[in-house]
Amino acid sequence: MKDKIKELIEEIDSFTASSKEHVEEFRIKLLSKKGKLSELFDEFKTVAPELRREVGQKLNELKDKAQEKLHHLKEKFDSDSDSGKEELDLSLPAETLALGSRHPLSIVRNQIVEIFSKIGFTVSEGPEVEDDWHNFTALNTPADHPARDMQDTFFINENPDILLRTQTSSVQVHVMENSKPPIRTISPGRVYRNEAISARAHCQFHQVEGLYIDKKVSFSDLKQTLMYFAKEMFGEETQIRLRPSFFPFTEISAEMDISCPFCKGAGCNICKGAGWVEILGCGMVDPAVLDNCGIDSQQYSGFAFGMGIERVTMLKYQVKDLRLFSENDLRFLKQFKSAL
Ligand code: DAH
Known about the structure:
Layout: H1 2-14, H2 20-31, H3 36-44, H4 49-81, H5 104-117, E1 122-123, E2 129-131, H6 132-135, E3 155-156, E4 159-164, H7 169-178, E5 183-192, E6 204-214, H8 219-234, E7 240-247, E8 250-259, E9 276-285, H9 287-292, E10 301-308, H10 309-317, H11 330-333
Parallel strand pairs: 1-5
Antiparallel strand pairs: 2-4, 3-4, 5-6, 6-10, 7-8, 8-9, 9-10
Helix pairs in contact: 1-4, 2-4, 3-4, 5-10
Bound molecules: 3,4-dihydroxyphenylalanine.
């Protein structure tokens, strides 16, 4: 019996518990009615009288030890689960929280806003669910105009007059209808087109529209403004070139290229050897658009431009697949750090 007691003492000493359940198992095994201690106390009745004193003492020691151990174990797991009772050490350094970062499209949008706000452009916004007038008709693009084909549009079934805007040029119309020149504003926002999603096209993307209306605004104002923008955005060494183009709402119209920001014009695979990359559309606001929006085209003239934020971002950060912007892959998003 003495051996059994010794064995149990060793077992108690070396016992460690990993959970509350484990502690309970310990209690049942040793201290419950059918536990080992109970068994030993039963056995004690058979111990020879001359040994009783010694064995009884050992048995009591064993019982105390088991109870003490159980008490400690219970205390440990109770205080672990009861954080309210835990003492707070206020001098410990705070846990570092993982901070999110701004989306690359937001970074570039904010940069564009900042660049234009330095030369007096305000920011205006318009609705994404638009009517035909603001998205097309007021912009000199009536229902039968072939230019509508270029912007495959999501219409609302119940009311074909309502659509998801295909361009932020629609905000120009709101601004002109609601304010008087001089107007100097940019309008960043999301636009929608019925395009199959691929590395180079998406059914939703972002544009920034620019509009400047005042007396005697000329094409050279447009050119200077855009050159300033290109240099601020892509670096002082950036060159621009304007190519004649067509948009229904501008006359004359142009497309602007910048010297390739990667090869500095030497020719590389990004600019496909051309040394130039297209970045935006622009032109002098068509007098018919001014009149449509309640601005006297005899007194005022203006310029407008529109660019894709995805396009600028892809050029700035060498992003090759448009889909990365909307897939929310943290491995991609974590790479962009900016104070803006
Ligand atoms: N809205 C045009 C588009 O989505 C871009 C554009 C071109 C805007 C010329 C303009 C402009 O204001 O003058 O393709």
